Amino acid sequence: MCGRFALKETPRQLAEHFHLAGGFDFLPSWNIAPSSSICSIVADDAGSRHPRLMRWGLIPSWAKDATIGNKLVNARGETIAEKPSFRAAFKSRRCLIPASGFYEWKAEGKYKQPWYVSLKSGDPMAFAGLWEAWHPKEGETIESCCIITTDANALMQPIHDRMPVILTPDQWEAWLSTNERKPDHLLPLIRPHDSKSMQAWAVTRELNKVGLRNDAGLIDPLSGTI
Q1: Which residues contact residue 200 at a Cβ distance below 8 angstroms, ignoring those fewer than 6 apart?
Q2: pTM of the model
Q3: Catalytic residue annotation
């Protein structure tokens, strides 16, 4: 799964890296949790990429209320083409979710030790995501998203059995395309990222203090990189 991540890049850095048309302001965060307003990237019919702020936790268009989003932070890649909560978005509302790195918790006896996982290159990751627009009976439309997960790669296996799907730059166009709707073309993109290009290390348990701690020190290593 993916229940917490960091995004330390500036809006300008993201615009340059993902070749975005237009931009918006947001603050870097080292402790992004579900239900937060997060940065996502969508494409229009011409293929231009645009940044959008969305709520993390997918609210399907047919939902009776927004609380279902609390349970739909992640979508298992193996079932997104069939699950009612995800199949419509998988066909036509796919997005990228930028992240500097993500956190996962490793069970160590009575405790769970958080680890920070990122790319060795230092580039931001592009999580494969889905998004929806939910129209409540009263109030404004809520755009929301979720992160797709897959089996852990060799780096992640000692930490956790799942990880977010991380797309490479050559896969972004196909994933974001509004014209591509065939599952047999999209499902091959949902696979573990190359472990040799990634790194991970243990970080402070103060990461668990959502809302109380949000600074660059959260990703400082406690021990050696693996």
Answers
A1: 115, 116, 117, 118, 155, 156, 159, 225, 226
A2: 0.95
A3: 2, 104
